[in-house]
Amino acid sequence: MTLFLLLLIIGVAILGTQQLIDKFGFRHLSYSIRFSADTVTEGDQVELIETIISRKLIPLPWVKAELTTDASLLFASAQSAVSKETRFVSSCFCLFPYKKIERHWNVTCTKRGIFSVSHVVLVISDLFGTAEWSTPMPDTTAHLSVLPAVRRLDEIRELPQQFGGELLRQRTVIPDRYAICGIREYADGDSVRDICWSASARTVNPMVWQFQETAAPELTILLNLETKPSDIECVSDHDLYENAIRFCAALLGTAAQTHLPVRLLANTEIDGIPAESRTGSGPDHLIRLLHMLAALPDLISCQFIRLLRRFLAQNQNTPVIVISPFVSDELLRIAAAESRVTVLSLKPLRDMKYPANIRHITLQSERKSIS
Predict the structure, then answer these.
(1) Among 162, 180, 214, 282, which residue's Cβ finds the most Cβ atoms within 10 Å?
(2) Would you list the DSSP string of 352-366?
(3) Per-residue pLDDT reduced to its tens digit, 267-277
């Protein structure tokens, strides 16, 4: 009889607890997540901070939070599972009345990108785990931008000539007298101060200096997403694509150190807008370009050769560095005809003679600070 009464009391307690948790379990219960930093660099560690607060008298003996994020975010704990490109992380809490609990996760960022920890589901249970209740938290999201690491370029014996020296442009309406390219006969409209008196004395007709326009170096980097000739809509070799982005970041870092004005284009779109930047220089511009690289998807919006031809036709004087996973026959023909185009291939070149402006490159694993 005593045993029966004890079991009856336990049963009533369990049912009563379940009724209370079912009715009041998610009331006055708040949950939030955030990263300790909004922006980090590839390879850095960051903290993910979970905060759960109970503002009621009813204790919650068992609360579990289930998070979904990208597999490239490594959590320093065994409480996570990976399925393809998705990581599932779970954490458990025991909440007493009017208590606040914070949990800090150390997260290693192994790949550049724009990531979020979302699809949060809270699960609560009674003391004996005989029943469970769950609710999604659609407004609970933490965002993180992982910039590509800026690495060194020491393995390249000779950087492309666009990284230094003056560039010559065709003459415009107002000549620049700092660049003399020859002597020609005097024509109507020429200034008297441009007359070369020594050459005029040796000829019958007056002769004037001929000038070219000079300009500060300016560079455009074109990034090719196509890793194989068969890539039409999506990148097929993601590792090679990520290496191309890392090398692009290395070039941009070198340009920022030399205060070289640079512009970045890629044959993809970011949020429906072509991936194109403005021309700029310095550390602030580098940060903007690294954010652009972090946001690049693996979708191809147009053929790279079409993008390159259009850019060369619209920009007659701008030198171009092409970062491409491989060198196609069409890209080889364009580089052979355009000396202002330098092609840097991540794949080794075939056993044939290439123009001097086409070369194979490798990248050091060591990172360099972007500051």
Answers:
(1) 162
(2) S---TTEEE----S-
(3) 999 999 999 99
